[in-house]
Amino acid sequence: MTADTLRKLFHERYPSQSEPFVCRAPGRVNLIGEHMDYNGLPVLPMAIRQEILIAFAPRTDSRVVMQNVEPRFSPVEFENAATITRSAQGSWDNYTKAAFQKLNAELEPEHFPGVDMLVSSTLPTAAGLSSSSALVVASALVYLAVLDQILEEDITRLELADMMAEAEHYVGTRGGGMDQTCILNALDGHACKIDFFPLRVEAPPIPEGAAIVVCDSTVKVEKSGDALLRFNRGPRFCALGTALVERYLQDAIDEDIEIDRLGDIWLGPLCLTMDEGAGYIDAAIPEDRLTLAEIAKRLEMKPAKVASLYLEDMPEPEGGYPLRAMLRHQYSEFARVELARDALLANDTEEFGRLMNESHQSCADDFFISSRELDALVGAAREAGALGSRLTGAGFGGATVNLVPEQEVERFVERVGQLYYRDFLGRDGEPPIFVAHPSDGAGYL
């Protein structure tokens, strides 16, 4: 779908409208650094050419009318206002509502203008490539244009990324800011190393002679229902573990120590080394699992208070909370991200691939976000010649990202098609695999 084609379709859907504007927001694939951003720890994704396009034109009222090129997404409309009622969980318009409501709160416009929108996407949904965040960002660009706000003049890309990370909480996900920051700030040909609090980016180049290949596991993980609960388990459990580490540091070092998020152990006023921080975490939580009652006793709270502060509707896992392993993933993945950035700068594909492989194992064994299908797909990719292979995105399903020598891509696709899609899944036809080309960030066309 080109911008010109989308403009023509817009006129067919909205024949009385003026000439539309068009904006784009790419998807992203996370190369390494999974479930880190909400803990204030760095990540290393890249934007891809698969994207969401929106053609749009302002209305004279406050109605937001949305149509999608894909007929499976029903047309929707809502009233733009300071407070916008959320649709049923899983409704595609919630991502646009999230962007509009957040910008209304931040920019405080005198009135709430409406807009006609036509959405097109080449991003697969529920595949771990951030189609939802791309829609949030693209919707924000639509609304900024309608409000006559100029990106990079009236609002910076980092400011907008920070706003849109908070905006997605409207939908119910409790992630960090990786997706929005990468989607808005990526550079063609480069990865996007992101650090948080304060938000900042750098752009190490993708290695020469290497291809980033994405393989869809075909297991869809919509961020609703039980899948949403599983996704939010990471932020909730990490916050609980961080509270235990804070209490331990207060007892061991200084009662005035405050740890708002896990990354503060290294990046806050304590300025601990990587090994020192890891050592304190292991000392604070020496047990493999802790019950809610045991956690409450250490925090000197009632169990109901702990649940209210940190867990909301999260049920207690059988055998207790695996906080030690989940925080071990955090500090080991932190180290891998830093080493991976260095490997990209050194054009060292072997080292980068090794770190990807270690990351997947940590995601599976310590953070519990892999699945039978993802493990099988990663195994098939390595057997097919990938230098590195790992799950990407929230986990549980979605896609894997693979580092493959450019000259081996065709053989890799054929071999993974046989090993995973035909032998493991029993699925014939063209395998859902594509080479991901690093793309520029979101903007207007």
Features:
445 residues, alpha+beta, Ribosomal Protein S5, domain 2, de novo design (two linked rop proteins), 6-stranded mixed beta sheet, 4-stranded antiparallel beta sheet, 14 helices, 42% helix
CATH topology of one domain: Ribosomal Protein S5, domain 2
Overall helicity? 40-55%
Top-tier CATH class of one domain = Alpha Beta
Question: Given the structure, what is the number of helices?
Answer: 14
Alpha-carbon Rg, integer: 22 Å
Indicate the CATH architecture of one domain.
2-Layer Sandwich
Could you give the order of the helices and strands?
A: HEEEEHEHHHEEEHHHHHHHHEEHEE
**How much β-strand is present in the residues?**
15-25%
Number of strands: 12
Unreliable segments (pLDDT under 50, ≥5 consecutive)?
none
Question: How would you characterize the largest beta sheet?
Answer: 6 strands, mixed
Briefly note the structural class of the backbone.
alpha+beta
Q: Whole-number average pLDDT?
A: 94
So what's the overall shape?
A: globular
What is the topology, as strand order, of the major beta sheet? 4-3-5-2-1-12
> How far apart are the termini?
13 Å
